[in-house]
Amino acid sequence: MPSPAKPTSMARACPPASPEGSGHVTRVGRPSIEAIERAGLASWPALEEERLDGWLLRASQGYTRRTNSANAAGASAGHLDADLPLIERFFAQRGLPTTFRLLSTAGDEAIDRALDQRGYRRCEDPCSVMVRPLPGDIHPPSPPSFALLPDAKAWLPEFVRLKNDQGPHQRTHLAILDAIASPTAFAVVKPPGALQPQGCGLGVVAEGHLGLFDIATHPAHRRQGLGKAVCEGLLNWGRDQGAHTAYLQVVADNRSAVELYRRLGFEELYRYWYRIRG
């Protein structure tokens, strides 16, 4: 497949100060699940994708289930017996476990039941996809500690340090970031007096939707408003890029994170989960 376009790094300065009350949003029509799925797939690309009879198969050397799983894109449970051997072969050829990403929609839930009957088990807790509108006149200015780094190569070491993850997938993570073709913000938050950033996050605008990814804060500096500062800065950036909706993905049982995002005005739109061979 052709190489994806390089990302656009948006390192523009943001205005100072950060008043409270950023969770107040004007009620507008919520986006469809299909629209958020399209934006999410574009904003977090796999290194390899293949379409097969209503399935989108994604592979990225095993880094993140999102980019190493089969997604129903018009597939139905009734065709699963014919599709399953081809899907399993796709992942086996790449040395990956066959993994399905399934949504809380009627069609995917039927596939979920069919996979359960064929020995596929749920793995990990479900993720909640939360959304909020981005009206143009009510979000507070970005905090003064918020800044944008020039590109993925400058940003990724900060994310790795904050997550304390020296795993083997850093090169793959960088390749995914470099494959993003949409406007991208590589954000950090560096509180006054800090020698290094203590929070970071990624914003991508695709099809009018701002996706927030890889939000992280230093373990020693949690519950100090750093995650909120990252999100506020990215919401402002996304609005400036013309986004009308923001979305994010969070483990549904992560109560502290879910509560933070609710205070920022996000509400759950749907959930997704994974199944792998038991």
Automatic annotation (TrEMBL):
Domain (N-acetyltransferase): residue spans on this chain: 147-278
SUPFAM superfamilies: Acyl-CoA N-acyltransferases (Nat)
Presence of keyword Acyltransferase: yes
Pfam families reported for this sequence: Rv0428c_C
Domain of life, per lineage: Bacteria
Keywords recorded for this protein, A-Z: Acyltransferase, Transferase
GO molecular function ontology, one term from the record: acyltransferase activity, transferring groups other than amino-acyl groups
Region annotation Disordered: where it falls in the sequence: 1-27
Range of residues in the leader sequence: none
PROSITE patterns: GNAT (PS51186)
Name under which the protein is recorded: GNAT family N-acetyltransferase
Organism the protein comes from: Aquabacterium soli
Classification lineage: Bacteria, Pseudomonadati, Pseudomonadota, Betaproteobacteria, Burkholderiales
